[in-house]
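Repro case for the chain-ordering regression, as requested:
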Amino acid sequence: MYGETGNKLVQHAKRTQALAHLPPYQTEMVRAVTREVRDLDKDVATILEPFAGSFDPSSEPATACALLVNHLCMRRNKRCLLAYHRTRTDKLEEMCWGGIDVLERQGQQQQGNKTTGGEATGGMGQDGNSSSLSPEEEEYVRQYSDLLAAYKGQWTDIDLTGSLEPPKDLFIDVRVLKDAGEIQTEYGAITLTKNSQFYVRQGDVERLIAQGYLQRLS
Amino acid sequence: MDIDDLLAEVTADAVPQQQRDLQELTRAWIAERVAPELLPYPAELMERVLERIRRQIELVEDQTGNLDPKANFKLIIIQTELERFKFLVRSFLRARIKKIDTHPLHLLALHQNPPSSTSILNPLLSPSELQYLNTHQSLLSTHYSSSFLSQFPNSLQRLDDTAGGISMVDKPDEETAVFVRCLRDVGEVWVEGTDNRFQMKRGDVWVVRWSAVRGWVGEGSCELI
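-- result from build under test --
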């Protein structure tokens, strides 16, 4: 009661900031905090009921104090919830900017969990729904990607999601880590087969580096 | 006005527009990355730069078929330059988006009711940035309300509440220190809330509170570094 769960949620959010991936959505905790807020609101209503709208704080300091604590706790809980959700959405947005397909990765993770879960007969104690995003968050990611694509579309020449490192060389050495098939460049087509090495224009392969197909050699 | 100022004016006119644009873009880019708050969008400058980038890309595409080694070499130089320009613009826009994401409601209020000191010529946000901000904000609030806010008591559902003495709308810290270089004699600068007064002369570098030099930077008398 009085903000304890909210505090846990914020600590969770703080941990999330340092992680590379997104930990599972704390549905239970979010619900508990929301419930707490509703309970507090009910408390306030019950306390105020006998006064019938003519409450004078100076004549009843004890009641006024209780009301104040309740109000502050509600606000605090709201802040905690907002902070928790904002941290997660920030993380998701970062992934969108980084060109990571969050939903696809979630799907893979889910499938991976299912297969391992099948072998270990659910020994991990995971329930069937093991996606670390809440349904609302999945929806959010989908819409944010659309928004990002729309904004990016106005700057086609610039490629907004490109590298934020200042470019030094036009051409770079890359090694192929995974077969990526054939790509078209201004100097003809290159077939990227695993373990081969190329000297190519940076702009042509930036995407592939970000996706992990190629490795840049310095 | 002394001879230095006169010389400076003459040389400024002699520099071709392209080079001045590059200088302006670099300056805007540095300023945007250093300043704690969002700066007005340089619409005209961006238009010119983007137009030039587009032309260069066309030129590169036209010339790729050319196998003459001399032309090829020239092309590589153009492409390198092009990549650098693209980087500047990209980094500039991303810096702005980052600030827009951090203080959306504050910026929206500022954009709609700009303080009288800013010129009407350059609004704070470009139309596409404004659109991005609005859409993003509505996405966020839908997300919040579907996640938990809709179950809250009505009085607590707002996202821009100022009750209880604390405003929910975050503002950038305008009192952080920035490094500035004076491009012209500014005269006496007074830091609000303190007794610090000092003379800023052309070529000086100072570490000052942003709120104290904001006006000079906007006007072009100082540049952020």
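Ordering looks correct now. DSSP finds six helices and five strands in chain A.
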